[in-house]
Amino acid sequence: MNQHHALRLLIVEDSADDIELLQHSLRTQGYVIASAAVDAAPSMRAALEGQEWDLITCDHSMPNFSAPAALAIAKERCPDLPFIIVSGEIDLNLAVALIKLGAQDYVQKSELIRLGPVIERELRDAGLARQRRLAEDKLRESQELFRAIVENVRDLVAVLDTEGRRIYNSPSYRPLFHESDIRQGSSSFREIHPADRGRIKEIFHRTVATGVGERAEFRFVLGDGSIRHMESDGQAIFGPDGKVSKVVVVSRDITELKQLEAELRNMAATDVLTGLANRRHFLDRLEQELARVHRHHGHRASVLMLDSDHFKQVNDTFGHAAGDKVLRHLAVLMQDELRKVDTLGRVGGEEFAVILPGADLPAAEVFAERLRKKVAGTPAAQDDRMIPLTVSIGVTGMKISDASADDALVRADRALYRAKECGRNKVAVEV
Fold first, then answer.
1. How far apart are alpha carbons 47 and 55 in whole angstroms?
2. Minimal CA–CA distance to 292: which of 357, 225, 355?
3. Which segments in the chain show pLDDT lower than 70?
4. 184: exposed, middle or buried (Cβ count in 10 Å: 0-12, 13-18, 19+)
5. Which of the residues 195, 301, 328, 330 could staple to 398 if both were Cys, CB 3.0 to 4.6 A apart?
6. How far apart are CA 250 and CA 63, in angstroms?
């Protein structure tokens, strides 16, 4: 394994034998390790404050410490640091609960051969997350810069009578509208998007009636048919009789801000590599679907968990760039098979999940089998070679008895592991 530096590994463990076993396993898997071991809260805090780490592994239960306590410290001090449970026997529900609290994965001590690939996946995902944060910071910086510019450019200023007819327009209107469209006495509502016009009229007349200005957002339709998003503030002007005689409306163009906000929302919900829903967004959609199952008697929905078989071999044989290409290839294949109402997400390194609203278990199984065959029959192109691909799929239905979406996800995950145990390239169902 090529690395620019040794893996800086903080091991939370009280057994010297288990520490040595873990280190030995990782060395045999190609890792160069620079590690330290702690077995109590004070020493863990000191280790986190004393240097930077790439990853934390943690035993589940120690005489004076526990994985939940260690996880809490890690999230407090280094919230983005990957945290992996490495334990003997551990209850599946407890492992799921720890993952919900922020742990990335769990590996049993009897299966340390899995630890290397898990670490590799988490280090790569952490790198992608850092790239995403840098992109988000750049977008925020652009947004703040744009706000500063907007506050200092010449806004659109209009003076209107109490019926919304134009008395005065600032010169800044002229690049947007023909002079005849904004002439004195013309209606200021005519250029507003039809879907927004009634609401803006209501706000305007309320300002005239109460004398209290309001902020509003709406869309202008320009002469060429293009749309601009605007934000306006109304200010009532009172006549000698104390009644509102005019309204001054100051508007500014926020179209680019709206686009930036949409990009930020999309980034927060999207997996950087594949463009699919990320784990957090997928789980939100899963909770929404479970709420529909609870609300509407007879509503059916199913969940699929999919795992790319022998994905590590693809990385080892063709390189990580090819592995990324394979994941994008799988994403496209699966998206082509989905309906608009379905949700496909990347929930782990090479793990995907699908929500099928309205699909009962038999229909979901048929869909999963069709998907399995589609993947098996569509290898990925890599230079002048083709990479054969298969997926293992676990299928389950969402139940009224499910307390949370995790209940369905755990069942689908169990079915997935059963499909892999049966030789991979299989579909397994958990009732």
1. 12
2. 357
3. 1-5, 142-154, 266
4. exposed
5. 301
6. 67
